[in-house]
Give the backbone structure.
Amino acid sequence: MPIFDKRAAQVLATIILFLAVGAFAWGARRTLIAFLFAIFFAYLLDPLVNLVGRSRLGHGSRGRSILIVYLVLAFGISISFYFAGPKLAHEGRSLASQLPTLLENVSSGQIAHQIGSRRGWNLNTQERIARYLASHNGAILEWAQDLGSHAAELATHAVWFILIPILAVFFLKDGHRFAESAISFADRGDQRQLLRGVIDDLHEMLAAYIRSQLILAAISLVVYTAGLTLMGAPYSFVLGALGGFMEFVPVVGPLVAAISIVGVAFLSNYTHLFWLVLFLGVWRLIQDYVISPRIMGSKVELHPLAALFAVLVGAEIGGVVGVYLSIPIIATLRILYRRWERYRALEQGAVHVEPTKIRAS
């Protein structure tokens, strides 16, 4: 029996290579996540860049078109902040100044007497709720600290708002070259065809996912803000902005937004809580079963259970960022599996797969 087995050595080398790549990815995860979000941002702006490039303004120049899109985007953001910024800032400062007092009242149980006396609760009910809150003082404070730590974690990524648009310029300008370079590493024609198919499917999935997420978030922001304002709910602009932003976080984002809206309204002694909860429930049904399927289409094609599993695993591994990336990652794994199955069938001569084109991204 030979001491050196070539096949075993190849398997061992492959395992070591995967471990090395995994260790590198984990060590450089922050940088890699920034590049991933830059790719997402590039997919978001790509249709606008293509549109400008075909117009007289772009003159067919990719660089000129990217510059025009960025200038228009900066102008639109500035106008939005000019009109909505003062109101949003005022409500944000007001809510931030009230939160410590509200938290202290909740942890001490005093909030039960304040709200109960205004809502007609009897004294026994007030006392029971107050004792329950006071007995769980430690859990309430721990929850508040966890929430603060998550907010601080997001604040540490504030530099991404500058870095991501800069990185996205390179993907917008040379994305198709990157794809062709990756395909050139394949030796055989059928391997190149496999890579082209994977990249083409990824292009369609990511484009549909990112743009639909933005549209859904924008619709949610408008609906939340308008609905809360018409209902006279407190801090409608801040809570509406929170609802729109949390729409980017799959599955758990809308739930967190709804709990936050109801919680702030309850602690602020809002008198129409039933109608507020009804509004949030009806809007969630409309968003999930009417609007989202029409906008998202069938590009992601994930079962709700698979999406929930991906979100939970993403939260466990990467926190808020992991939750957001979970859906694209599991959809990518699904694309890789389906394309690999078709590639194996092609090798066996069972099917013929038409070659696909790489779209500019």
Notes: Confidence is low (pLDDT under 50) at residues 356-361. The chain has twelve helices and no strands. Residues 186-361 form one domain. The first helix runs from residue 6 to 27.
